[in-house]
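sorry for the late reply, my laptop died twice this morning and i had to redo everyting from scratch. anyway the thing you sent over, i finally got around to it. pasting the sequence first so we're on the same page, its 289 residues, then the predicted structure underneath. double check i copied it right bc i was rushing
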Amino acid sequence: MRLVRRWWIVLWLGSIPFIILGVIITPLIIDPLFNKFEPLKDQQLRRDLLAEASRAGIEGSRVYQVDKSKQTKTMNAYVTGLGPSKRIVLWDTLLQKMDHDEILAVMGHEMGHYVMHHIWKGIAFGIAISFFGFFIAQKIYERGLPRWGFTDRGDPAALPWLLLIGAVIGFLLSPVTNGFSRHIEHQADQFGLELTHLNEAMASSFVKFAEDSKQDPNPPRFIEWWRYSHPAAQRRIDFALSYRVRAEKVWWPALSWPHRQLASARGKTARTTPSPLVPDFEVHTHTWP
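ok and here's the structure:
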């Protein structure tokens, strides 16, 4: 079997649809094939979530619950879709294990992902990092072929070596991919706190997520740096409890990205009266440890 000289570019281009499929299409098309999506039954929670979404600049969305408990005990929720397909989705496991304020806090975080376009940024990052990974894999693979006794880069017997190279590169790139993920997760935490002001509820939700995942809530820094896609639970709890929301009337360039996005969203929705879900907080700048 002969491979074109730039075979790694062909593989990279072929991987792009799968990256997009996994992030964009799966929640809208694949998941409904295996689970039942129905309107959220708790009407008070539905009203509060829609009010929260409006404050975040997410208009015209629908709220669903999905029966994920038949497949897993873990909890999750997300905001996805564009235009008529825009939806807020809560797993029934989340509804069973978290109280009203904790759910609002969790959804504030998820709305942060949506408003700050983390899905699209994640896709762009995934495409870029996969290009780098395929490029490095190609260099190692083709230089190693003679040492492994192969003369043709398309020899099927060399495929296990290529797969091994890919696995090692993926492992070595873990600090980069996980670092990007932790960065946007922290941004979403900050956005959620700015949106809801539910510091204690946000912190208690992190406790429940940590208990649910059985993950070490306070790992050594190196382990967190290499292996954790989210900030460690203890750091998120400490951040939520110590964070104080900025005043809205702050000079625009001084605001961090989550603040600018939320300020922009609030401007678009033209909120003229304060929401009872958003009490006043003192101004304080928290430095992420």
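The beta strands are 37-39, 62-66, 77-80, 87-91.
thats about all i looked at so far, will dig more tmrw
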